[in-house]
Amino acid sequence: MINIQALENEILNSIQVADTLEAIEAIRLDVVGKNGKLTQAMKNLAQLSPDEKRQAGQTLNSFRDRFTTSLQEKKSQIELVLLESQLQNERVDVTLPVDGAASGHLHPITRVIDEVTQIFAQMGFCVAEGPDIETDHNNFTALNIPETHPARQMHDTFYLKSTSEDGSPLLLRTHTSPVQVRTMMGQQPPIKIIAPGRTYRCDSDQTHTPMFHQIEGLYIDLAEKVHMGHLKSCIETFCRTFFDSSTLPIRFRPSFFPFTEPSAEIDIGCKRTKEGIQIGAGNDWLEIMGCGMVHPNVLKNCGIDPEIYQGFAFGMGVERLAMLKYNIPDLRTFFEGDSKWIQHYGFFPFATGYRTQEDVA
Ligand code: DAH
């Protein structure tokens, strides 16, 4: 039988001097590993008489308990030291200068929404919002687009499985025009709002993405206060300010929208070259938005008396404006989340330089 006391002294000594987790593991294997000293001693118990076996067994067991405890204690101490040194090494020096290359950029969509909002804010419009999930009623019916109207098919709508509380089917709004409905339902004129936001259509190719952005405008007031002339000057001011050109050619081309009468599409003068489109030059035209005088049925549907009030509305696509103004050739790149793209086309968030009406006047 081995001398337990001598073994214990030797082992406790080696635990004391161990200062790495590897050394601890080596000691563990040396004592209780498959061929460890204590394992061996336990095996040897078989050769003893029952009485000796009981006594020696107790001694070995209590030794194993003391061994396990002191090995575990030492292991915890070493781990603590390691953790502290790791924390020390990984400390971040917050006083070091910031890496300038890591600064963020505004997405062109954000920038264009800000620019458009500023221009209309100067003309007295405030911002209104509505949800991306709309009722079929607000997106179509209230806007004078009845169920049988072909415009419903044209919009390639994403319908949801559920319906709203009043039974109207739910959908992802196909345009920002339902914000007109929500605003008119909630207040009487004068109303002067623009509504930027996300819109959705089941459409995806080089010039269409299933999610895109629009900005809607609505001005309703006493009939004698707002007519088509106001619409024209409002849109002209916007286009010339936004494209930074006081001589930008603009034309109102008769069109059709169910929610306006009369309706028009706005074209701006441009030149198409191999490199892209040059705004304000040449004798080509480019469509940039729809507009018109709000249809009396829409006013009626929203609780506004068309005998007393009238007004105009307009709607434009944000991506299109951004592509034209900042020469971005491919629509799909807007939504790829490529940080190199945003460094190239994006805007430094703290730059001033939003164009205002004064800049153009
Ligand atoms: N909602 C139309 C669309 O998505 C855009 C539009 C055209 C909005 C004329 C208007 C408007 O308010 O008067 O194509």
Structural account:
The protein has 361 residues and is α+β, with helices and mostly antiparallel strands. Helix content is 41%, strand content 23%. The protein has two domains: 84 residues; 230 residues, Bira Bifunctional Protein, Domain 2 (BirA Bifunctional Protein, domain 2). It has 13 helices and eleven strands. Strands 1, 5, 6, 7, 8, 9, 10 and 11 form an eight-stranded mixed beta sheet that branches. Strands 2-4-3 form a three-stranded antiparallel beta sheet. Strand 8 and strand 9 form a beta hairpin. Helix 1 packs parallel to helix 4, helix 2 runs antiparallel to helix 4 and helix 5 packs across helix 11. The longest helix is centred in the first third of the chain and has 40 residues. It binds 3,4-dihydroxyphenylalanine. The site of 3,4-dihydroxyphenylalanine has 11 residues, from strand 10 and strand 11. This is Phenylalanine--tRNA ligase alpha subunit. Its main location: cytoplasm. Its EC number is 6.1.1.20.
The biggest beta sheet reads: 8 strands, mixed
Low-confidence stretches: 354-361
Tell me the total number of β-strands: 11
Average pLDDT over all residues:
91
- CATH-defined superfamily of the largest domain: Bira Bifunctional Protein, Domain 2
* Count of DSSP-assigned helices: 13
N→C terminal distance: 106 Å
Give me the secondary-structure category: alpha+beta
